[in-house]
Design brief:
Order of helices and strands: HEEEHEHEEEHEHHEHEHHEEEHH
Helix content: 25-40%
Low-confidence stretches: 1-7, 15-24, 26-34
Family: Belongs to the carbohydrate kinase PfkB family.
CATH topology: UDP-N-acetylmuramoyl-L-alanine:D-glutamate ligase
Largest sheet: 9 strands, mixed
GO cellular component, one term: cytosol
Pfam family, one: PfkB
Mean pLDDT: 90
Keywords: Kinase, Transferase
CATH superfamily: Ribokinase
GO molecular function: 2-dehydro-3-deoxygluconokinase activity
Oligomer: single chain
Length: 335
C-alpha cells in the first residue's frame, strides 16, 4: 500500500522514517515552553472526580479519571519527553476542579485547552466494593464537561495546535446536539488542514438519548476519523456485528480510513488503507480489574505507531500495556 504522505496512509509515520522524526524534533525545539504549545496529540473528553471506597466505611479515596484522560495519561508516560500530549475539557472553579486541573498538569499533560465553567463543576463518580466486585454510581448529568464544545472558535483554535486529535463515543454522548455539530465541524476542518483524528467508539448507552441516536452519532464520528478503535462486544451488542470483519467493513463504509477491533484477550483484527490482518499471539491475562483496559490499549497502540511501529507490533504494544493495567486495581497504575 502506497503512502499518502511521509506519515503513512492513515497519518502515522512509516517505520523508521527519519524525515518524520527530524520534523518532530524541530517542532519540539521551536514550539515547547510557551503559549500555543504544538501538540502531538490532543485528547478531548470528560475528566471526572473519583471517590473509591476503602475497607473503612468512613474513609474514601479521592482520585481522577475518565476514558480520554486515561488514554492521555498513559500516552504521556509512553512517549518520549519531547512529545507533547494535551487535554481539552471543561471543568468548574471549585476545589475539586482545581485539584483535577493540577492532577492533569502534574502528569505532564498540557492544560492550555481546559476551560472553566463559572456555574457547573466537574462530574463525579463513586466506586464501591462488594465481595470483590466493583459497582459505580455517577453524578455527571450537569457536569461542566457537557459544555466543552459550545464555543466553535475555541475548538478551532485548540485543534489548530494538534497534529492528532483523540476522542471517544463518551465525548460525543455527553454533548447537546448542537455542540455535537460544533465538534464534528471542528474535526472536519482540522482534518482538512492535515490533522489526524482517532476515535474510540466506547459505547455507553445510558449517556445517549436513545439507541437510534447512539448508532447514528457513533457512525457519524467514526466517519470523521482516520483511525477507529471499537470493542467487538460493544459493537455486537449495539450494531449486531457477527464478526470483527463486519465491524471493520461497516466503519470503512462510513468513511473511516483504518479500523482496529479490540477483542478482550482474543485475536485483534484490523483493516483499512494501511492494510488488513489479525494478531493472534496475544498472551491471555487473568484480570484483577478491567477498568481502563481499552483506554490503556489505545495509548500503547498510538505510542507505538507514533514511534514508527507497524500495526501488528502496535497491537502487541497496546496489549502489553493493557495487560499490566488490568493486573492492578484502578484506572491509572504504573506501567
Amino acid at each position: 500500500m502506497g503512502r499518502a504522505d511521509e506519515r503513512g496512509a492513515a497519518g502515522f509515520p512509516a517505520c523508521g522514517d527519519p524525515l518524520f522524526l527530524l520534523r518532530g524534533l524541530l517542532r519540539v525545539l521551536d514550539d515547547r515552553g510557551g503559549e500555543g504549545v504544538r501538540l502531538d496529540l490532543l485528547s478531548v473528553g470528560e475528566a471526572m472526580v473519583e471517590l473509591s471506597a476503602s475497607p473503612d466505611p468512613a474513609l474514601w479515596h479521592l482520585g481522577f479519571a475518565g476514558d480520554t484522560l486515561n488514554t492521555a495519561w498513559y500516552l504521556r508516560r509512553l512517549l518520549p519527553a519531547g512529545r507533547a500530549v494535551g487535554y481539552l475539557t471543561r471543568i468548574g472553579t471549585g476545589g475539586f476542579s482545581r485539584r483535577l486541573r493540577d492532577f492533569i498538569a502534574d502528569a505532564g499533560i498540557v492544560t492550555d485547552h481546559i476551560s472553566a465553567d463559572p456555574v457547573r463543576e466537574a462530574g463525579l463518580y463513586a466506586i464501591e466494593l462488594s465481595q470483590g466486585e466493583r459497582s459505580f454510581t455517577y453524578w455527571r448529568s450537569d457536569s461542566a464537561a457537557r459544555g466543552l464544545a459550545d464555543d466553535p472558535a475555541a475548538l478551532a483554535a485548540a485543534f489548530a495546535q494538534a497534529d492528532m486529535i483523540y476522542l471517544s463515543g463518551i465525548t460525543a454522548a455527553i454533548l447537546p446536539p448542537a455542540d455535537r455539530d460544533n465538534l464534528a465541524a471542528a474535526l472536519d476542518a482540522a482534518r482538512a488542514r492535515g490533522a489526524r483524528v482517532v476515535f474510540d467508539t466506547n459505547i455507553r448507552p445510558r449517556l445517549w438519548e436513545d439507541g437510534a441516536t447512539l448508532r447514528t452519532q457513533i457512525t457519524r464520528f467514526a466517519g470523521l476519523a482516520d483511525l477507529v478503535l471499537p470493542s467487538l462486544d460493544e459493537e455486537t451488542a449495539h450494531f449486531g456485528d457477527g464478526a470483527p470483519q463486519d465491524c471493520i467493513a461497516r466503519y470503512l463504509a462510513a468513511g473511516a480510513r483504518q479500523v482496529v477491533v479490540k477483542n478482550g484477550g482474543g485475536p485483534v483484527h484490523y483493516g483499512g488503507v494501511d492494510g488488513a490482518g489479525r494478531v493472534d499471539d496475544l498472551p491471555r491475562v487473568r484480570p484483577v480489574d478491567t477498568t481502563a483496559a481499552g483506554d490503556s490499549f489505545n495509548a500503547g497502540y498510538l505510542a507505538a505507531r507514533l514511534g514508527g511501529a507497524g500495526i501488528p507490533d502496535a497491537i502487541r504494544a497496546g496489549h502489553d500495556i493493557a495487560a499490566k493495567v488490568i493486573a492492578a486495581r484502578g484506572a491509572l497504575v504504573p506501567v
